[in-house]
Amino acid sequence: MRKRLPGIATAMLLFSGALFGQAADVGQATLQYDLSEVTSTVTDDATPGAQPQTVPVPGSGPATASQTNLIEMLLEKMGKKEQKIVRSVLEAGIQNKVINLQKIEKQLGKFNVPALIGLYSDLRALKISRLDFKRIENIKSTLTQIDAAIKKADIKSSEFGNLSFFAGMARDRLATVAESETEKTQLRAAAIENYSATINALADDKNVAAQEKLADSQERLETLSQPFGQLVPVEPAKGKSKAVITSDYGTRIHPVKKTKRFHTGVDLAGWKCNGWKVMAIGPGRVVKSGWESGYGYSVVVSHEIDGRMLFTRYAHLQKKSRLPVGRLVKSGDLLGYCNNTGVSTGAHLHFEVRETSASGETLDPKGFLPPVDNL
Amino acid sequence: MALCLIGILLGGFQAAAQLDPNNPPTDDLDYEEFQKKVAAMLPAQPDLLQFSTIYCFPFAPWPEGIGQAGASFEEAFRGYSLKVDQERILLLDRSGRTVFSCDGRTKNQKMVATDHQKGNLQFDDFAMLRENRLAVADNSRNELLIFAGNRLEKRLGFDGDRILFRHIDFVEPDRLGMNLVLFDSGRNRTFVFGHQGNLAWETEGKVEPCFYGNSLIRLEKGDKNLQIQRLSDITRTPVAIADYTCEAGNIILDSWLAGTFAGHLAVVVYEGRGDEDHPDYARLLLIKDGKMTVHRFMPNLDFRLPLLTPYRLLFDRSGARLVTARLSPQGIEIIGAPVSLK
Asked: What is the pLDDT of residues B244-289, one digit of tens each?
């Protein structure tokens, strides 16, 4: 039976929310929902919880007459983009609870659009720092405890491995909010040491939790020691032409029908590109590999970059030689070969980048690639 | 002279090594036209399952409708999760952090759960459980959050030693809302929890988002063969319950378990011809007591609408229907085809 260090488990529990909570604080979360229909066969003895707090955000909730008038009056004078910024300012400000609506309203009266953009940036930074402040303090204090525990002479190998893993995660997380590049580099170097120590200590431990920590440590080691992006994901065969973008990311209007269409990624192709190598643009883990409707055979790789979850999709690949789900990849590793499977008019690679999940919000892939010519 | 010849050859090669800008290789196509082309490629089939519109979740400002992002396929478009619960169709609008329901019979739309205004949660998937509980998978914090009433009751993800999840793919309740199955693609691991959040059991690998009694179902894909396996909560070893071999000349492309009812299993299979994967008709396999009935229908190849389980089996007073969703200019259209379960 494994011996636990007193207090560490409790501290870990406190620490977990801080470490994994990237979004807003869930501690206060309440939902507005109605499950009466679902539970019609069950005695409805649930006491109704507190109603969710509603805040008067323009366009999405009630506001007082004076607030609405002033805000709407200001919004009318602005372009669509500026309106979007103002609404974001209001929403962020209210969510932060550091600036109340009256104060924002007051500021709106004074500010011009460039100042609003500045305020918006400040609020975003403020939102992050406010959310992170408690967590960072929490992580730092737990990390001190872990470091002290690791140094004890009588510590068991498995316990050492476990604690090193959490120390690595803590440093990894702190690096994402480091104030300077030097601090970030130092924290990452220390995290790499912690993860390496975990791998050495837990290599022979057959316990599921230990195996999971081992796998996570290996993945983080790959991620921390390798670059992400700045690599064209398709490699021309020797002596053949270079890859070009044949269809760009973004919204386009159909030339005849005048309908709007959104292309979620970039299409990369070259002369006779059927069979060209397709490579991962950064370290990560294959989370999908198979046939996906119009994408044909595709591979999706998840990457954790600077506290952000990114997913890269490589589509229209050949059926054979694709990497299987669960495989760890390094930057430049072969994922499959370019082909014409799925909804496609010829051999090419559809490359897309999404945030939060494999079907999450799309990002312009060109931001992660070196310059590539358009056709 | 020789240099001249090399120059001509190089020039010739360069010209040949160009792509035609008027006809570039791309997937940036009109999907409706593509779908028509696919239909034209396929041989006529008299007994195809016929889909008709059941309901349309409209694009409209919250809370009247689902997020506008899908209407123009903007960057913020995060897709949906389609589920059925008794007679209701449930749709999670991930961008709007809201779950809507629609009664298949009365066409009455309701907002079931939302965190739209507060924005505390990332709704990646959800499961309705008994005793007024709602489970929300939130990958921004790698946790499964259980709400009772509308208060946060439990956070699952870390037990003081083990980080349970890396990336939650789906959560799905059983018919009574007593248990839920969760698949984590980051760990390639399946977990079964009770409705109060207690971990009942777990196993390696992926299963389908559906309960078959107390068991789970796994689909093992081969090149031309699909094996439907049952994974019991007691033995936890997969046992084959049916085998499907695709039509000669075809290969298996994709498959999903659409649902179960009264001992029936409904499995949707996409298959295509040869390595070029020219799509063939999709198959609906209805399996009971080792017997299999096969129906055909037109596959939906549109990849703009990300749905983890694109097909579901809905039961209401008009019988069983295979339902799916498609994008329309007005919203997310739920279409269904009647299925005979004899």
From this structure: 999 998 999 999 999 998 889 999 999 988 666 678 999 999 999 9
Give A238's contacts (C-beta < 8 A, 6+ positions apart).
none
Interface of B with A in 35-54 (CB under 8 A): none
**DSSP letter string, A1-13:** -PPPPTTHHHHHH
What residues of B are in contact with residue A38 (Cβ under 8 Å)? Answer: 85-86, 128, 130, 177
Of A76, A111, A127, which one is at a domain's C-terminal end? Answer: A127
Closest CA–CA distance from residue A174 to any residue of chain B (Å): 16
Instruction: Supply φ then ψ for residue B333, to 5 degrees.
Output: -90, 125
Does residue A93 sit within a domain?
yes
Asked if A271 and B85 come within 8 Å (Cβ–Cβ), the reply is no
Residue at A183 is within a domain: no
A123 and A241 inside one domain: no
CA distance B123 to A241: 44
Q: Tens digits of per-residue pLDDT, A281-294?
A: 999 999 899 998 88
Do A294 and B302 lie within an 8 Å CB cutoff? yes
**Residue A236 Cα distances to A132, A272, A293, A337, angstroms:** 45, 9, 26, 11
Q: What is the pTM of this model?
A: 0.81
User: What's the pLDDT at A122?
Assistant: 54
Half-sphere exposure (CA, 13 Å, Cβ side) for B79?
23
Per DSSP, the residues of A246-284 read: EE-SEEEE-TTT--EEEE-SEEEE-TT-TT-EEE-SSSE
Domain-embedded: residue A26: no
Give the span between the Cα atoms of B59 and B73, in whole angstroms. Answer: 12
Domain residue ranges in chain B: 210-307
**B34 close to A (CB below 8 A):** yes
Q: What letter does residue A236 receive in the DSSP assignment?
A: P
- A17/B150 Cβ within 8 A: no
Contacts of A273 in chain B (CB under 8 A): 25
Inside any domain, residue A170: no
Chain B residues whose CB is inside 8 A of the A52 CB are: 115, 117-118, 150
Per-residue pLDDT reduced to its tens digit, A121-138: 555 554 455 556 777 888
CA atoms within 13 A on the CB side of A132: 15
Of A93, A96, A104, the residue nearest A71 (C-alpha): A104
Supply the pLDDT for residue B327: 85
DSSP state of A152: -
Range of the domain at A100: 65-127
CA distance A14 to A140: 12
The Cα of A327 is separated from the nearest Cα of chain B by a number of Å equal to: 10
Number of domains in chain A: 2
State which amino acid sits at residue B140.
S
If we measure between CA atoms, which residue out of B229, B221, B227 comes closest to residue B251? B221
CB of B287 closer than 8 Å to CB of B276: no
CATH number at residue A361: 2.70.70.10
- Are A33 and B155 in contact (CB < 8 Å)? no
Shortest Cα distance, chain A CAs vs residue B76, angstroms: 5
| Residues in chain B within 8 Å Cβ distance of A320 | 275
Record: contact A287-B187, CB cut-off 8 A: no
A25 and B148: CB-CB below 8 Å?
A: no
Pair A171, A147: CB distance under 8 Å: no
By CA distance, what is B28's nearest residue in A?
A263
